[in-house]
Amino acid sequence: MITYNLVNNGIGKVVLTYSFELIRHGHTVTLLVGGPCEQEKVDEAVAHGIAVTQLPDKRSDTLGYFEALSKALDEGQFDICHVHGNSGMVFPELVIAKCSRVVVVACHCHSTGCEHPVLHRVLRPFVPRLCDCMFACSDEAGKWLFGNAGFSVIPNSFDLDKFRFDPQARLELRRGYGIDEDVYILGNVARLNPEKNHAFLIKVFEAFHAENPESILMIAGGGPGEKDVRALVEASPAHDSIMLLGNVKDPAKLYSAMDCFVFPSIHEGLGIVLVEAQLAGLECFVSSNVPQDACVSDRFHAISLTETAERWAGEIAAMAFWPHDRSKGSFRAGSLEPFDISSSYHLLEGAYEAALDRKGGRE
Fold it and tell me: Do you know which InterPro entries this protein is assigned to (predicted)?
């Protein structure tokens, strides 16, 4: 599998989750990483039997990256090369894979936006021609990269039971952070990148906090935008009530400590954290730019980013203090099954096997 980075973000979690399942089912997996690697994630991968090769950085040493990638694919004798990305910028990796000794070339889209929209539009038409398999985390993400070509939706799946509401975890985490039970916590779990829209999130909280001064905003996640987010927090009139937790090793328990989830993302391939939050019984207030694939329950409330922060705060406040049983929820029929790794893994494996059969397998 090829990925730009191996860090605690959405793509990183998906790559590792499916890699673990492939290993568990007897396959061999190598990760070729062309950017930042967090040692904790590398150690986790290696502990599960995954080989990790860190290539030269794609952005700072592009030529060195392409040369190392070509060499790794030629020498690796891989049956399948699965390229993960967000846009037509995966084009070079697909060309290199197609020119290598790899039998099947797969591409997997994880977003509906990117940093280089012009290059994306130029390169996108060539992507389907280079792929034997096309995957996306949602229908919107698939159309963003593959257009009307025949792609398959392979959801960002995980262990569902791990994210169910845990009252004991709620009590322990709140005690650990020194937060009383009656304090209302707005939560957000996301990579600290501009597309996650933390600037607007903080404005929403400021409006909510003005009417509910005992409330807290809890932000979990790290990333290249951390310095900017920290500056926004320090400048906020509600800065004493905003918690920046950084990367959290086990966010599953963190959801239980929260009272609602706010996610004003500018663009998303899916927004898997929203599925996790709904499983934990949280009311989720979400940008209307987030794909409806992430709506698995009646706790998903989409609001346009053209609305004011005050309007968002009002929507949250209108539902904030309603009593409800978080251990129960009204989930859409069949909506959770695609996110169960035990079932969605077989979609991936089946697509691999079908492509290998079409190509005649390894010579």
Answer: Glyco_trans_1 (IPR001296), Glyco_trans_4-like_N (IPR028098), Glycosyltransferase_grp1 (IPR050194)
